[in-house]
Write a structure and sequence with these properties.
oxidoreductase, 13% strand, 357 residues, 14 helices, 2 domains, TIM Barrel
């Protein structure tokens, strides 16, 4: 079995599997070809849709890549609260001339069907978000030669990942853009997560498996910092969101460095689960009232977000972004990997020189 990162990919750089059409095969291929680890996001896709993207990616690169899965979610949402939120969103539906989505459109994201595809057609790496897969699932993937990683946001969650038998843990700091990969959705802990450096240090002392650091990492110097804290590699999402090959909407890419969007915030407004996004009108108006109801709220708001994007209205879109968004660089993904690698080497040289004094 490979060990992160030396046997799988030359550079300790992992492209985050951003769902919603961002992590397309072209992006993953460019990252892998440059020596990082490219990722596809299976979230919100059908099993066949995932398979078709894997086939497309394999036609673009022979290098290792990963596929990310969402764990099925328990039925904990209060239907009454979801109904109230739907009533509050009625004005948005009218404004964008669309209907709200069906909050009961499914909770398992086609998990079993996707696993079946990945066992029949193994890929080098599979990662998991929103929980811990069973030991049986992890063992079955290991038997077909797949390296497994699971997201954790606390040292306790990391220990659960190790106990389940995963090969590595992704330590996701609170700075990360998009959804926090907490194993249990508890509104009382919203916004209380650790920063990536503190989290990596705690996780490194808690588990014996490799740690991949995630959360607000945009520069090679930051990669050097998390490696020094004990990580084996760094996972970057927002940094690749602006890449030429990214499937993100043009307005989303532009918003990362636009003076209109000066900060990010964790919100349930778009999906019902804590996720970090640029603060826009929709987030400001609906974030304070959004219930803890994932994926119910995700399904409910999906037509609104799609209509806002079609109308060219970034104020109604889910502009996922990490805290380092203003440091985004619009470069080809392969070139970005090269730049990050050069910055990492320079930072390591500076650290070595400092230590030699």
């Amino acid at each position: 079995m490979s060990s992160v990162p030396t046997d799988l990919f030359p550079h300790p750089i992992v492209q985050a599997p951003m769902a919603g059409g961002v992590a397309v095969p072209q992006l993953a291929a460019a990252v892998s070809e440059a020596g990082g680890l490219g990722f596809l996001a299976a979230g919100y896709k059908t099993a066949d849709g995932m398979y078709q993207e894997i086939k497309q990616l394999r036609g673009l690169t022979a290098r290792p890549f990963g596929v990310n899965l969402f764990l099925p979610q328990p039925e904990t949402a209060d239907p009454a609260a979801v109904g109230v939120y739907a009533h509050q969103l009625a004005g948005e539906a009218s404004w964008y001339e669309t209907e709200l989505g069906d909050p009961d459109s499914g909770r398992d994201d086609g998990y079993d069907a996707k696993l079946a595809v990945l066992l029949d057609n193994p890929v080098p790496v599979v990662s998991f978000h929103f929980g811990v897969p069973s030991r049986e699932v992890l063992d079955s993937l290991r038997r077909v030669g797949t390296f497994t990683m699971v997201t954790a946001t606390t040292a306790e969650e990391a220990r659960a990942v190790e106990r389940a038998g995963a090969d590595a843990v992704i330590a996701q700091g609170v700075e990360a853009g998009g959804h926090q990969g907490t194993h249990r959705d508890d509104p009382e802990t919203d916004g209380s997560g650790l920063g990536v450096l503190s989290l990596v240090a705690q996780v490194r002392e808690s588990v014996g498996i490799p740690v991949v650091a995630a959360g607000g990492i945009m520069r090679g110097g930051q990669i050097a910092a998390v490696l020094a804290a004990g990580a084996a590699a760094a996972q970057l999402g927002t940094a690749f969101l602006a890449a030429h090959e990214s499937g993100a909407h043009a307005l989303h890419k532009q918003a990362l460095t636009s003076p209109l969007y000066v900060r990010t915030e964790l919100t349930r407004a778009f999906s019902g689960r804590p996720a970090r996004a640029l603060v826009n009108r929709f987030l400001r108006e609906h974030g304070p009232y959004a219930p803890a109801a994932y994926p119910d709220v995700h399904h409910l708001t999906a037509p609104l977000r799609k209509a806002a994007a079609k109308a060219g209205d970034a104020q109604g879109m889910a502009l996922w972004a990490g805290q380092g968004h203003r440091m985004a660089r619009e470069l080809p993904a392969g070139q970005l990997v090269e730049v990050l690698t050069a910055e990492l080497a320079a930072a390591r040289t500076a650290l070595s020189a400092g230590g030699a004094r």
